[in-house]
DNA sequence: CTATTAAAAGAGAATCATTCTCTTTAACGG
DNA sequence: CCGTTAAAGAGAATGATTCTCTTTTAATAG
């Protein structure tokens, strides 16, 4: 994407156009494989060695808040532990971060059958987990 | 679960039985809603104030490695960013941590229809994401 | 029951991504 | 151009987790 087009998008969202914002946006587009903040910072520092790491974080936040990019949350986090070992999915409350288990063998079978017919190229499925985002109706 | 039964499980796995291991295991079972290491530590320190935090982490690792508990990985992690805004799922490589997008409208419709018929009690679904774990066949 | 020894626990420093605080700079409307 | 105000810069702070090194203890054999 051209810097000009990025400028236009920033202006559309009412964000000030700065070289740092353009650089960060360009980097996220260019590093198109879900880059971490770290790899974005490294990439940008090649061309703009003086940018502060905190600035990159702030720009990423601003772009995310304005829907220009998305945060992809991954897998190495503040870990949580579970004594229940059966296969289960997660209900995830977008308001409170509460997580509940959700088991549904019928659904599992449905998905399993679907992927028996339709394979994903170059990918061998080991296991599928659903993350069902939403809201709990009651606080219990 | 009784301490005795926990001992038996530890022995089964060839792990030494220590009061700390029993306390951690009991805490994970008792705090049955996906406790974080932090809340496990807090819980244990009520009864065993002298346990070292690092010990709890080590015990959790040992229990996880031996299949006695599971790690539940959640949602606030080392964030990754994505310039692709369309709805998509993720192929997650368990070997390399590589993440690829996976779009499949047919599958989305299948799941959507399923949850039109079968509601989850006390939960309002906003959006469902699949995390498809497995291995990429080629390194490209 | 006691000694041996390998594994585990303890303590606190180190790490590392991210956030915070405070100061300086610069975008942009007038 | 100028002033206002948001944004950038710098580096300290944070906080979960890991590491390193020392001490203790569980399991085992004599």
What does this structure look like?
The structure is a homodimer of 140-residue chains. Chain A is of the alpha+beta class. Chain A has two domains: 3-65, Orthogonal Bundle (Arc Repressor Mutant, subunit A), CATH 1.10.10; 74-140, Ferric-uptake regulator, C-terminal dimerisarion domain (Dna Ligase, domain 1), CATH 3.30.1490.190. Chain A has helices at residues 3-12, 19-30, 37-47, 53-65, 105-117, and strands at residues 70-72, 80-82, 89-93, 99-102, 123-136. Chain A has a three-stranded mixed beta sheet with strand order 4-3-5, with no helix packed on it. In chain A, α2 (19-30) crosses α3 and α2 (19-30) crosses α4 (53-65). At the A-B interface, α2, α3, β1, β2 and β3 of A face α2, α3, β1, β2 and β3 of B. β2 of chain A pairs antiparallel with β1 (70-72) of chain B, so a sheet runs across the interface. Chain A binds a DNA duplex (30 and 30 nucleotides) through α4.
């Amino acid at each position: 994407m051209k810097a000009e087009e990025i400028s236009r998008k920033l202006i559309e969202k009412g964000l000030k156009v700065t070289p740092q914002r353009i650089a960060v946006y360009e980097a996220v587009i260019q590093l198109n494989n879900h880059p971490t903040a770290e790899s974005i910072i490294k990439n940008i520092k090649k061309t703009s060695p003086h940018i502060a790491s905190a600035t990159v974080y702030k720009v990423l936040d601003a772009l995310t808040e304005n829907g220009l990019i998305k945060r992809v949350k991954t897998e190495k986090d503040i870990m949580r532990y579970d004594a229940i070992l059966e296969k289960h999915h997660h209900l995830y409350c977008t308001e409170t971060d509460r997580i509940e288990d959700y088991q549904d063998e019928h659904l599992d079978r449905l998905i399993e059958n679907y992927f028996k017919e339709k394979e994903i190229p170059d990918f061998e499925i080991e296991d599928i987990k659903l993350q069902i985002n939403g809201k709990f109706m009651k606080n219990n």
